[in-house]
Amino acid sequence: MRVGIIGGKLQGVEASYLALKADWEVVLFDKHPAPPAKGLCTTFHHADVTREKEFIRHCEAIELIIPALENQEALASLSRSAGGLNIPLVHDPSSYAVSSSKIRSDRLFSDLGLLLPLPGPRAGYPLVAKPSGASGSAGVRRINTEAEFLAFRSSTADSQDWVIQEFLEGPSFSLEVLGSGQGYQTFQVTDLEMDNQYDCKRVLAPTVLRKSQIKEFEETALTVAQGLNLRGIMDVEVILHDGRLKVLEIDARLPSQTPTVVYLSTGINLIELLKEICAVNASMRCLPDGYPGQEPTPHSPPRGVIYEHIHVSPGRLEVSGEHVVSEAGPLQLLQGFFDADEAISNFEPGRPDWVATLIHVDETREKAWAKRNQVIEQIKRACSIHTVLDPSPPGGTSHRA
Q: Could you say which of 112, 205, 277, 328 would form a disulfide bridge with 286 (CB–CB 3.0 to 4.6 Å)?
């Protein structure tokens, strides 16, 4: 199988990792010469996909195209190129149009009768302000007082394009859904931990949620998928606040981080399932008779996984949000890195400043966490680390093993 992955940042790292685990040949495209996923591909093309003739010249024998970017011009170009080449494209334009706007997403959640944070400022303080079109934690800020809110409104020219909601404290969780437009399938719930900038620093599995809460989350995710008439992949993020799950956001695209954890914990590779539900034509048409493809057979019980990002500098190790990986340049997939099961890193011997995504897998989450602690100790000794930081959002909740 020869797959074209378009974009080499966080989503590209995710797609490349899972494609390699499926024993696929990975052809990576990026308009930047040294993206993070460059070290995880079989072939790299420094190319701008909006230059469609140039892109098409490099698509020989590619059987599937996976966008790993959020640029609308690039996505439109890919749709035209994939259509002309008759290559399936893993992209659901209508679902993506909703999920790429937090305003449209919240409107959908409200129309579906889902529980979500109360709108501000009438919800009271503190509030959280999120730019509608930004991805993940980009641009998110906390507003603590009315004076801060008024200052935000007066200093932000496009404040009407922001979502303002009550600020909720509590652990966050993610769940992937695949859909054909006729049938839908949820997968494993994963637990998310954030740094002090509300960027995801760690993903853990299996979840700490109770069975009843998992069922509630699955029903919520399926409701959203049906509301979107989803054709492809989507993840749903919720927060547990005062014992209730509230929907935070959706992304109708391949997410970063969580699919790898699902794969390591359950053995289910969502990239392989995406291939199954793509018909052999240029659009993201999926088989019409319910959820397509064979029912996945997960590990039983699921394995414990700790997946986290670190930034090492002279004398210091900080657990950080995934942004540190996106800015690190080409990464390599390393086995047995300081006795971690795997790492994705720009580490080189003697390099004083480097980043890594550390991956720890064991029979249980508790054992994986113990393994993680041993790896951190090894890095501390080898790199003369005297300061270890693991920041969380102000007032945030942690739910490690």
A: 277
